[in-house]
Amino acid sequence: MTAFQYPNGKKRPITSSTGSLAPKKASISYGNRGMTLEEDLNKSNDYYLKNDIAIIHKKPTPVQIVHVEYPKRSAAVIKEAYFKLASTTDYNGIYKGRYIDFEAKETKNKTSFPLRNFHEHQIHHMDAVTAHGGLAFVILRFSTTDEHYLVDSQLVSTYWKDQENNRKSIPKNSIEKEGIRIKTGISPRIHYLQAVDALYFS
Amino acid sequence: MTAFQYPNGKKRPITSSTGSLAPKKASISYGNRGMTLEEDLNKSNDYYLKNDIAIIHKKPTPVQIVHVEYPKRSAAVIKEAYFKLASTTDYNGIYKGRYIDFEAKETKNKTSFPLRNFHEHQIHHMDAVTAHGGLAFVILRFSTTDEHYLVDSQLVSTYWKDQENNRKSIPKNSIEKEGIRIKTGISPRIHYLQAVDALYFS
After folding, report:
1. Is B103 annotated as a binding residue?
2. Among A30-39, A89-98, B42-51, B173-182, where is mean pLDDT lowest?
3. According to DSSP H, which parts of B101-166 are helical?
4. Contact criterion met (CB below 8 Å) for B34 and B27
5. Of the ranges A19-28, A191-200, B26-35, which one carries the lowest mean pLDDT score?
6. Which of A32, A80, A153, B71 is the most buried (most CB within 10 A)?
7. Is B158 within any annotated ligand binding site?
8. Residue B65 to residue A128, Cβ atoms within 8 A
């Protein structure tokens, strides 16, 4: 949960799911009734948990706490803290007995997914998870068309390692060819475990 | 990482590993050269990661952020935030292709481990992980004698469900009988994956 309610009722996400450290203002995805990718995935994970399908959680936003006050007869208040870069991906858990690990990102681009959405350490982490027998993937939202794809982390890793010599993004036709289009709906909003089934369990 | 450096050089843990929400003052475990259980486990996990043995991380401390300021030309500052109760256990990851999930707690008691160290939702979470084929366990430190045990979560769950009628703690002889004593040393400090091997892979 990284969204909070201001007293004036406005919602504002604390971290963007594009991986940048600095919080951004809430952007409204018109294709998706104003829900951020993170909110949609949290709802989907709640659905999977309640229906005993999988146990997958978003990790809390890492925060470096510098100063805490302890008022008498009320909760401790953090008075100074900073956003930290996460050392892993945002989501992990268990599905069908397998370790699941993924990152979710979105772009307004229409024909490719920019690699700058990822961090070096996330690529390393996903490579290591794959090597240890886990399922590591990314969920990519093309927000302009409201399309979602699930792609194995090795595709991202391959383009990542080649970007010095080559293009700085993954072409959409490569994502369409190697990945699985994710169905979206009401509940679960983003039914990504169907895509996991298609990619890894079929 | 929930410990931070005050300007005066004193270290203070932000959350206790005893599961309470309110931060406590740093307690020095004389049996263990002043390292908290969490610090020891983080070091052990670093060792496992660097040696490509397992990928296990502590989840960041969950924080409810209420107010953030965005000064020009410097990092966003969280000016008001509160500690939240975690919805899962503190640690998870992958080892030998299996999903690993655990909670670490310590007590000064000598003959039993008080169940008040756990929360209802943690017991449910570990039960669910077990049902989905993951390895869910707890690491218990008896700080007075500096002994560490790894115990399957089902032992905790069994005592938890019985506590209305019965005792409010797990007797140490039950932990010794059902669990595995963890060897401690320099690197890794708490070699709990040896105990995982003995309990689940032998």
Report:
1. yes
2. A30-39
3. 120-131, 153-162
4. no
5. A19-28
6. A153
7. no
8. no
Q: Tell if the CB–CB gap between A57 and B14 is shorter than 8 Å.
A: no
User: Which residues does chain A have within 8 Å of residue B87's beta carbon, measured at their own beta carbons?
Assistant: 57
DSSP string over B74-86: S--EEEEEEE---
Q: Which residue of B has its CA nearest to A127?
A: B55
Query: Cβ A94–B132 below 8 Å, yes or no?
Result: yes
Cα B144 to Cα B121: distance, rounded to the nearest angstrom:
28
Are B2 and A76 a contacting pair, CB within 8 Å?
no
Choose, out of B4, B94, B124, B129, the residue to mutate when testing the contact with A (most A CBs < 10 Å).
B94
Residue type for position B131: A
Token reading at B167: 């005792």
Of residues B87, B96, B134, nearest to A57 (C-beta): B87
The alpha-helical segments, DSSP class H, found in chain A are 37-50, 120-131, 153-162, 172-178, 192-200
Q: Where are the alpha helices (DSSP H) in B54-188?
A: 120-131, 153-162, 172-178
Residue B86: closest C-alpha in chain A: A60
Write down the pLDDT at residue A33.
Answer: 53
What does the pLDDT look like over A113-134, one tens digit per residue?
999 999 999 999 999 999 999 9
Each residue's pLDDT tens digit, B27-79: 444 444 568 999 999 999 999 999 999 999 999 999 999 999 999 989 999 99
The DSSP secondary-structure symbol of B166 reads S
Contact A102, A195 (CB under 8 A): no
Write the secondary structure of A17-71 as one string of H (helix), E (strand) and C (coil).
CCCCCCCCCCCCCHHHCCCCHHHHHHHHHHHHHHCCCEEEEECCCCEEEEEEECC
Best of B99, B126, B135 to mutate (most A CBs within 10 Å, chain A): B99
Answer whether B23 sits within 8 Å of A64, measured CB to CB.
no
- Is the per-residue pLDDT at A80 higher than 90? yes
Q: Which residues of B touch A4 (CB under 8 A)?
A: 64-66
Whether residues A132 and B75 touch (CB distance < 8 A) is answered with no
Pick left, alpha or beta for residue A85 (phi over 0 → left; psi -120 to 50 → alpha; otherwise beta).
beta
Q: Quick check: A65 pLDDT over 90?
A: yes
